[in-house]
Amino acid sequence: MNLIWVLVLILLVFSNGHFSNGVSTNSSNRPEEVKIGSMFTFNSAIGKVAKVAIEAAIEDVNSNPAILGGTKLNLTMHDANFSGFLGMVQALKFMESDTVAIIGPQSSVTAHAITHIANELQVPLLSFAATDPTLSSLQYPFFVRTTQNDQFQMAAIADIVEYYEWRDVIAIYADDDFGRNGIAALSDELAGKRCQISYKAPLDPQPTRTEIMDVLVKVALAESRILVLHTNPTWGLDVLSVAHYLGMMDSGYVWIATNWLTTVLDTDSPLSSKSMDSIQGLITLRMYTPESELKRNFISRWKNLTTHQMANGPFGLNTYGLYAYDTVWLLAHAIDAFFSQGGSISFSNDSRLSELNGGNLHLDALNIFDGGKLLLNNILNVNLTGLTGNVRFSSDRSLFRPAFEVINVIGTGVRTIGYWSNYSGLAVLPPETLYSKPPNRSSSSQNLYPVMWPGQTTQKPRGWVFPNNGRALRIGVPNRVSYREFIAEVPGTEMFKGYCIDVFTAAVNLLPYALPYKLIPFGDGVNNPSCTELPYIESGLVVVAPVKKLNSDAWAFLRPFSGSMWMVTGGFFLLVGTVVWILEHRLNDDFRGPPRKQVVTILWFSFSTWFFAHRENTISTLGRLVLIIWLFVVLIINSSYTASLTSILTVQQLSSPIKGIESLRTSNDPIGYQQGSFARNYLSVELGIHESRLIPLNSPEEYAEALKKGPKNGGVAALVDERAYIELFLSSRCEFSIAFPRDSPLAIDMSTAILKLSENGELQRIHDKWLMSSACSSQGAMLAVDRLQLKSFSGLFIICGLACLLTLLVYFVKMVGQYIRHYSGEEPESSGSSRSSHFQTFLTFVDEKEEDVKNRSKRRQLERDSNRSNGGGMESTSAASNRRCTEMATNRSVSFGSEV
């Protein structure tokens, strides 16, 4: 269709004109000027900013001889005036004037059409505003997008939807190439996250208010409340104004606008109070450009640049203006590289057009740019730093490292709540701060600041409501034969009764919206219907197995603790006793005496703490600290042991060879299931259990009989069924027990409602009405209690061990200090003294009672004072040494001699 339009345009343009051949050849490698074109809508939010930015860039390039070596850029600008037709005509006009490149078009629709002309005549198109993702395909080799691709913008929106745990969105968009292809990209991105567009609401590319209202009324009747608005800046605010009028900006709605909204806010700010009221709480995106000195300088120039451009009022600088400015510089650098590589500006006739024999159409006016491919290659290889940051292209011809700001409209302004980049996803830090770190797209790393949602609420909207379209929810109800306490059809009516019906009705009454529904019976009333053929919310499966009583034996007292627990506990008894002995030995006579007595003391003290019956007192502060911590540990261990042993000896303990679904899976025993239950598919398909092992059972009586027979007598080893049925089955059959359990937005709301029923006691009342039975209510039976494991007490043992280690360290430091002070007045020993003698002396010192050490120190001090007063000299070294040895020997005899 685009090619047909091109041919029509050619007929219209050339039927009344006589164009020159346009062939020119410059002998100079660098001509005085190079002709380039530019086409966009001057009076649009994007165009009026781009016009000023492009003119400023042309002036800056031409005033800088270092860029093109004296060659000037000769720019011709055409106003497309919101018309795709005019844009295509203007493109043809550029082709007659030796134009080597065109900056534009602004519209994606126009780009689709004129790109075919650019491909044929090999003239690069550099668009700073056409964001349609499909323009990036191999079909358009001479189209170069110098702005962000909408593919990335839609990826950002999909990440936002996933971040807030929504699943369905509604897309409202312009029904043209720009809108359709952008929403198609959004659909693909959402599908990758198991989300979807549940309803598409296309709008005419130039809609009236009535057309907008008709579309939004249909949107309001839909289920989803997550609305993505992908339009252009011209009439996007009109959609939001109508939505505000219809009450679609109230609490519960979520509006995500693509970057057209930030373009309007940046360009036409401040908006009227009416317009701001209609966009409160919206989330929108802005193409992210990092802060730089170059960008700040251009922003400061903006007021002067727009002084003569404000006939219709002042306007601000948007991101499209930054990309337009960088596009001129990108093209200038590419042309400079083109000339440096020997390229020349020359054109030649298109032989295929000449063969058409166009007569008065003069098709030979359309010429091929001979250096087009070389210039295109240089454009794609440019690497420069501009107002938008690093300007270069990746392998897919998209700008390198695309990123967006995530904006929340609040009050009279906007607030940045985070950033998105294809490198790290959603984050509250600017993208460039994350590029130095490894990429992390895990869900835990995704983060945004809190949002003020429509309706002035900070609570995240649920994202959906039950659709108000008059359709009732059809709910299938199994017409069961067994377990009619859960669901049963009332004879002669279309009504149902039972536990499930009462819970469902009570939950529906708690929903914050009306839920029209109709109960549809399923089954013939003779056999239980198969729930796999009916939409059904699956409950948890449990395994039921026969159990036997564990009788107590002579060694039952050892069962409360595991083997490792017994070993570590015993080891700590000895450790604590030894530590306390070390800390008390020099102070406490209870911990002194002959070696045999001291060993007995350590053992007695250690194990008597189990009963808190230790007779030895602790004197030292460190010893008391260790003991109080240890007694606390003993208290916890003792209480746990007592409770577990009491349970073992007094409560009936049950044992079963079936430990859960895994033990059933690995065995070859037959397994029973309720006929018609989805458990059959689960066991065969999900767990891979052969169907020959699966035995269908119809009633609770068959359950009991098959379990009693067992797998060797024609029965089953265990039964797999839904927990609700099993609880009713077990309520009157105490010889069986559960071995182990296996682990639409409407389901969430119903679950919340059922939770409220549980909190207010209504669910228990319904349970007691239908399912209460007293046959096994007092049994309290359970499977054999697991032994207490070491890991349950590891924290206590670690604390106690650290306490022992720290007190020993403090004690050792204290001993060394006392040893040094005690012998600091002694004469140095002879050079023949060995280290072993020092160590033996230290051990002897440690073994002494502290009181004796202090008394000896006092005597020495008195003797030294007496000698100084009598003028006496110091004792000889040998005499002092003999006296010390004598004293040590005397003290050893006191320490290990007789008991005190």
Automatic annotation (TrEMBL):
<dbReference type="GO" id="GO:0016020">
    <property type="term" value="C:membrane"/>
</dbReference>
<keyword id="KW-0472">Membrane</keyword>
<comment type="similarity">
    <text>Belongs to the glutamate-gated ion channel (TC 1.A.10.1) family.</text>
</comment>
<feature type="disulfide bond">
    <location>
        <begin position="734"/>
        <end position="776"/>
    </location>
</feature>
<feature type="compositionally biased region" description="Basic and acidic residues">
    <location>
        <begin position="851"/>
        <end position="867"/>
    </location>
</feature>
<dbReference type="Pfam" id="PF00060">
    <property type="entry name" value="Lig_chan"/>
</dbReference>
<dbReference type="InterPro" id="IPR001828">
    <property type="entry name" value="ANF_lig-bd_rcpt"/>
</dbReference>
<keyword id="KW-0325">Glycoprotein</keyword>
<dbReference type="Pfam" id="PF01094">
    <property type="entry name" value="ANF_receptor"/>
</dbReference>
<dbReference type="InterPro" id="IPR044440">
    <property type="entry name" value="GABAb_receptor_plant_PBP1"/>
</dbReference>
<keyword id="KW-0406">Ion transport</keyword>
<feature type="transmembrane region" description="Helical">
    <location>
        <begin position="565"/>
        <end position="583"/>
    </location>
</feature>
<dbReference type="InterPro" id="IPR017103">
    <property type="entry name" value="Iontropic_Glu_rcpt_pln"/>
</dbReference>
<keyword id="KW-0732">Signal</keyword>
<feature type="compositionally biased region" description="Polar residues">
    <location>
        <begin position="875"/>
        <end position="900"/>
    </location>
</feature>
<protein>
    <recommendedName>
        <fullName>Glutamate receptor</fullName>
    </recommendedName>
</protein>
<feature type="domain" description="Ionotropic glutamate receptor C-terminal">
    <location>
        <begin position="474"/>
        <end position="773"/>
    </location>
</feature>
<dbReference type="InterPro" id="IPR001320">
    <property type="entry name" value="Iontro_rcpt_C"/>
</dbReference>
<feature type="transmembrane region" description="Helical">
    <location>
        <begin position="793"/>
        <end position="813"/>
    </location>
</feature>
<dbReference type="InterPro" id="IPR028082">
    <property type="entry name" value="Peripla_BP_I"/>
</dbReference>
<comment type="function">
    <text>Glutamate-gated receptor that probably acts as non-selective cation channel.</text>
</comment>
<keyword id="KW-0675">Receptor</keyword>
<dbReference type="InterPro" id="IPR015683">
    <property type="entry name" value="Ionotropic_Glu_rcpt"/>
</dbReference>
<keyword id="KW-0407">Ion channel</keyword>
<feature type="region of interest" description="Disordered">
    <location>
        <begin position="850"/>
        <end position="900"/>
    </location>
</feature>
<keyword id="KW-0812">Transmembrane</keyword>
<keyword id="KW-1015">Disulfide bond</keyword>
<keyword id="KW-1133">Transmembrane helix</keyword>
<feature type="signal peptide">
    <location>
        <begin position="1"/>
        <end position="17"/>
    </location>
</feature>
<dbReference type="GO" id="GO:0015276">
    <property type="term" value="F:ligand-gated monoatomic ion channel activity"/>
</dbReference>
<feature type="transmembrane region" description="Helical">
    <location>
        <begin position="625"/>
        <end position="649"/>
    </location>
</feature>
<keyword id="KW-0813">Transport</keyword>
<keyword id="KW-1071">Ligand-gated ion channel</keyword>
